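ok so I'm stuck.
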Amino acid sequence: MNATESIQTLLHCLLESQKYAVLATDQHGQPYTSLMAFSATPDLQSFILLTETGRLKYANLMTNPRVALFIDNRENVGADIEEAIAVTAQGVADEVVGEEREVLRDFFLRRHPGLRVFASAPKCALIRIKINSYVIVRRFQEVIEWRIEN
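replied:
not stuck anymore, here's the structure
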């Protein structure tokens, strides 16, 4: 297994085990974070999120689509220093509409069936984040960056 395959395997394991991420957006130069349910595409190139169009995070995404997502597996125990993995995924967000929206909504709902009513609401926007890079931190100080060539 080469280094890229090893990174992809690590990311798949983490992203399958975690259902929520912290989304960081820009609010007029000030960072703004939101806890979000997510689904990552199998190729690791996109994340799918849902939000209401009237929310501050939606306005932030429409103003500046450059975002970061933070996902980790910490358990708030001492062993986290050696065992926890934290990932920052950096990318660009866009709202998906039309037929593609329905396909991606169904993909998202397979992972989060409890959000079906929310996903069907008229004010619900489907957001795709196209990932440019992942920064992975494990064993407290080991940092690995993986850039995606789109």
